[in-house]
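Figure-free illustration: sequence to structure, shown twice.
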Amino acid sequence: MATTTSLSYDNTGLTSGTISYYKGPATTRVGAGPAPTHASPPAHPGPRGPAPLRLTARGAKRRLVDGDIWSAELAKVYLDQIAAVEPSVKAFIRVTHDNVAKYSTKVDREMQAMRGPLAGLPIAIKDNMVTEGVTTTCASKILADYQPVYTATAVRQVWDDHVVMLGKTNL
């Protein structure tokens, strides 16, 4: 059963987004031939262990690998925390809800193939690191609309490990 969570943060100026993740066992089609190759992730056994915000990166990765939590759920926990504290902390210049929804769902579907040490973990990128497709301002009004045409090598290397970028942080 697909579960969709809509996110909307009006008071912080953050954009809205939707995260879809799967809860429950994948359905079996009787007499319809083999299951499609883009099958749902395995059934989620429910939360165990400490709350996701209390986990270290190693602990979060272990729970992802063990199937105790999905990347979309972990990302949603962090997005909810960002929304709760961002008005007073002002740590993020841009929260990339669309990227979070897209990549966390992709990681959940393909977790067995994505064996990188960071696969599925949410991260934030400093806004002085250029990221193709995401506005990079370096916290400057002069660069408010700058769209980089390439991605910094350091960012590309972590993206190649299939991380989920939550957004761009203030300097």
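We now fold a second protein in the same way, so the two outputs can be compared directly.
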Amino acid sequence: MSRGRRYDAIIIGSGPNGLSAAITLVAMIAVTARLDVQLAVVALVIAPALFLLSGHYRRRLRSQSRHAKKFESTTFAVVQEILGALRVVKAFAQEQYELDRLTDKAHELYQSRMRPARFNSRYSSTLQALPMMAQLGVLALGGWLAMRGTQKDAGYCRWIPINLGLFTTLI
């Protein structure tokens, strides 16, 4: 597949999802700001960090997955080579050498598959913790404003689910 076709497929394939997420984000920000500007500002302070971290996470995970796929194809090439030359291997008593070679490739393949899994386990917890920290900040500010009497309890309770939707859209 040519590079231009690949880019077209990416743009067309992700366009509706990206557009939908952008519209949802703008709507959430508008509703949030209409309910309470202070709480909206607190919620949006974390948005750039969350957006940048998820972009960095996505790029690194994608590159590691591509590397694992390439390595998988080289491992399968070794298997095909061994199977294709099986008679020669047996004739020259090279079974142990080929078995060791295949075992080494399988171990390297396993390691290349585990790298993205370890990366995913490390950074997915960070991506889940950031929205919760922002939610905690919003809850603390909203509670403090409600105790001072500048925030109505009913408006604050309506705002909490919208805030959760806002952070889910950003990830």
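Summary for the second example: The mean pLDDT is 75.
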